[in-house]
Amino acid sequence: APRDGRIEVDPAFFLTDSNMLRIRSSQLEHDILLVRQSADQYKALFLQCTHNQVDLAANQNKIFCTSHGAEFDFTGKVLKGPAEKNLIAFPVTVENGKIYVKIART
Q1: Distance from C-alpha of 12 to C-alpha of 90, rounded to nearest angstrom
Q2: Which residue, 23, 36, 79, 101, is most buried by CB atoms nearer than 10 A?
Q3: What string of DSSP letters covers 33-95?
Q4: 59-81: per-residue pLDDT in tens?
Q5: Which of 39, 36, 34, 29 is nearest to 7 (CA)?
Q6: Separation of alpha carbons 27 and 29, rounded Å
Q7: By three-state DSSP, how is residue 4 classified?
Q8: pTM of the predicted model, to two decimals?
């Protein structure tokens, strides 16, 4: 459960061969894709299509929408329409070996 509007993630949750982790919060309608960019750099992307607000899927190469075919890279940038806006990203911090995703709008 989020404390102070943050979700705590243990880096051990990442599978050895994967730099992506799908995390869920009861406070959000869609999941978050946590992308490990380097040892201590992470990007937290809201898996909601900016075109029709539907759920997004991800594979090793991209994030994509199964409804209309929009595609995004792992920084949240639009690669292919019909979506025109980049994905929402949440601030990520690393403290004491844990990853924190801030979902509260404070």
Answers
A1: 20
A2: 101
A3: EEEEEETTEEEEEE-B-TTT--B-EE-SS-EE-TTT--EE-TTS-EEESS--SPPPEE-EEEE
A4: 999 999 999 999 999 999 999 99
A5: 34
A6: 7
A7: coil
A8: 0.92
